[in-house]
Amino acid sequence: MVDGARTSVDTADVTDRESVPDVPSRDGTVNSDGERAGADGVEPAQGGDDSTDDQLVAVSGDITGYSTGTGQYSDFVKTFRDRYERLSPMLKGRVNHRPTEAIQAMPGGSDAAMIGLVNDLRSTAGGHWLIELEDTTGTFPCLVMSDREFASEVDEILMDECLAVEGTLADDGGILFVDSLYFPDVPRTHEPSTADRPVQAALISDIHVGSDEFMGGAWERFAEWLHTPEADRVEYLLIAGDMVEGVGVYPDQDDELDIVDIYDQYEAFAERLKSVPGDLEIVLTPGNHDAVRLAEPQPGFDEQLRSIMDVHDARIHGNPATVDIEGVSILMYHGVSLDEVIAELPDEKASYDNPDRAMNQLLKKRHVAPQYGNHMRLAPENQDYLVIEDVPDVFHTGHVHKLGWSKYHGVLSINSGCWQAQTDFQRSVNIDPDSGYAPILNLDTLEMTVRKFNWISRAYTGYTETGSSSVAVSSHSQLESQNSRGWRTLIPSSTRCVWRIERVFGRDGPRLVFFMWWAFTEIPRRMPRGRSEDALFRDDERRRSLEPRDPVDEADTRSPNSTL
Questions:
Q1: What is the pTM of this model?
Q2: I need a surface site. Which of 113, 133, 279, 409 has the fewest CB within 10 A?
């Protein structure tokens, strides 16, 4: 039963112990003071809704200030029960659902349908799949035969997600043979909203200030570009987590830190944020490297860190959160669960090279982190803040340090890469980051271009740099075309050294070092050193005459009449 869902947890992960009233129902309305008017008086707004009629930016689904979880068993029961109650209505229109206890009382051979959370998933000796579904009344086994047309979809199933199945009961009524399988999914008829005027938003993540691989030069070029006429329409900056590198996030991280104090890291990030135009609307949400609890949903930062990052009146919210910008709904989620999805699903359905495919799987499941356990830490609350109840127009994540985007049933999924070069730790786990990119979204059309601000360009291998700042990439094919020409493999063993040169000598440091190397090595090697071409020719002929000749070559050049 959902009451008995897997509920083991490291209670040390649940650190937000704010004493606040229970979260009210979702039927109330929010007044201008952020309070929800209910039948019994005024209650706090659910999920930290931050919206008024005259605001161009509204945020919903924010846990900040509304966390009630204490890590108790009953808290997990509430979370999983709420997940079931909010996702099952999305499936009830597709199947004639009956609760488990009713199916158990049905005679063998009857047609039946069930909606439940995946309690167990395993293959049988015959190569079939056994799925155990759980609802509020019990659990029931469902068998997917390997010869079914939809059997390949079983590869996409994760533990704890919500599914619907329909089929026929076995003769003894003890198992359901599945004929159809359904995910909550985004309706194919979904039509995204757009802004009423030409306006753009920059969507980035994973800045990692404090790392000795933070790409300060690329950030400076990005900030400078935002001040140019070309960026006049960019009025919003959305950062989806990992503003700083953090401390103690992974083994031996201290060896890769440029700033070892967490508060100094946030001070340095605030200084970087000051370089962008002051009239930008900035929205910040945390990630797993930030100084908040690791368990999701993550509340926004504490007051001390908020005061440090109070630059250009930046809005600071929890993870995940839905940001409504001029009518366009953008779901911001840092993306820790992408590791889980990529590990569990086949490469063609989710991979680090194509993070947008993993994001589309989350949209299909209507949950940003369906599988609990392993890397995914869950903070139990009165409701499941990780459910994607309302379909967003844009889904924005980070975390995996890879650039990828695509549309799924009208929803634009964007993973925005990072601003950190490859660290020793990333190299050890085979992570090749896409660094120094800024996806720029047209809110009026939901079309996107990607601006490239990392210094690696054809200035050194035949590339050219547009102006002084960026190269626009408008499609995956253009990005792959650039990658195939070799920028990704340029001096891979020297990348760390190059970033350090840039940090010490500034943005033009690598170019200066490159041309110094060229001047002292390549140019002298190619110069004739004052000798005439005839002299060089004679020297070359003399050298060849003194070299030992291959007997095979001599035999090939002998006269046919030779007796030697």
A1: 0.76
A2: 279
